[in-house]
Every structure is written in structure tokens, then in C-alpha cells.
TrEMBL record:
Location of the RRM domain: 33-115
Name under which the protein is recorded: RRM domain-containing protein
Alphabetized InterPro entries for the sequence: RRM_dom
GO MF assignments: RNA binding
Keywords of this entry: RNA-binding
Annotated organism of origin: Paramecium sonneborni
Pfam families: RRM_1 (PF00076)
PROSITE patterns from the UniProt entry: RRM
Length: 124
């Protein structure tokens, strides 16, 4: 687990304990510990993205994957991992619509990342 030496006091473990029973933050069947984040600008760096998610307990890492369409348009896939599905759920609910830049009109769209193992089990 990433040990943040400068934790944000607003999102510490005591905060998580206070909201643990709140229905809004309860992990659902499809919940995973990994989030897919849509809306990250193509010129974003891993450090910039990590600064958004790092203050939350359970943060493990950010993964940025550069891709390109057949027509040559570049885009980023962004995944953020946490210790468990509860922590990922809290972050997803809290940061949904977060505006990365001042000119960002739509904000981030955050989803649970697909879990291939879970999908295979559901098909059986």
C-alpha cells in the first residue's frame, strides 16, 4: 500500500469509518478495487493524475496507457487501484464529474474497471 506522508485530513481513515455504513458508499456486486477513469486529457502525466487520487486511503497506483485509433488519434486509458472495493467506491462517488482543467466541460467519468475473472464466473 502507498503510504502518503502528507495525508489529506479530510479523507483520512476516521472519515472512512464515519461513512462505512452510508448506503451511497456500499460496494455493489460489480464493484472492484480498480477504477477506470474517462476524461483524462491526452497530455496528462501520471504524476498529475496521482495527485487527484493519492489523498484517499487505500490508494495504490495510477496506470496510464497510451493508445491510438486506426485513424491515428491518440487517447489515454486510465486505471486507478485501491486496497479494496469500498475505498474505490468512495473515491468514485466523491470524484465523479471532477474537472481536470478549468476548460473541462464534462469532468471525469469514473467506472469500476472490468474484472475478467468475475465476468468469466458470471457466464458459467
Amino acid at each position: 500500500m502507498y503510504n502518503n506522508p502528507y495525508p489529506n485530513p479530510m479523507f483520512n481513515n476516521q472519515y472512512f469509518e464515519l461513512i462505512r455504513d452510508n448506503q451511497q458508499f456500499q460496494p455493489q456486486k460489480e464493484s472492484t478495487h480498480s477504477l477506470y477513469v474517462d476524461g483524462i486529457p491526452n497530455d496528462a502525466q501520471e504524476r498529475e493524475v496521482a495527485h487527484i487520487f493519492r489523498p484517499y486511503p487505500g490508494f495504490q497506483r495510477v496506470r496510464l496507457i497510451k493508445k491510438q485509433t486506426q485513424k491515428g488519434r491518440e487517447y489515454l486509458l486510465c486505471f486507478v487501484d485501491f486496497d479494496d472495493a469500498f475505498q474505490a467506491t468512495v473515491v468514485m462517488q466523491t470524484l465523479q464529474g471532477y474537472r481536470f482543467d478549468k476548460n473541462d466541460k464534462t469532468g471525469l467519468k469514473i467506472y469500476f474497471a472490468n474484472n475478467p475473472k468475475q465476468e468469466k464466473q458470471n457466464k458459467k
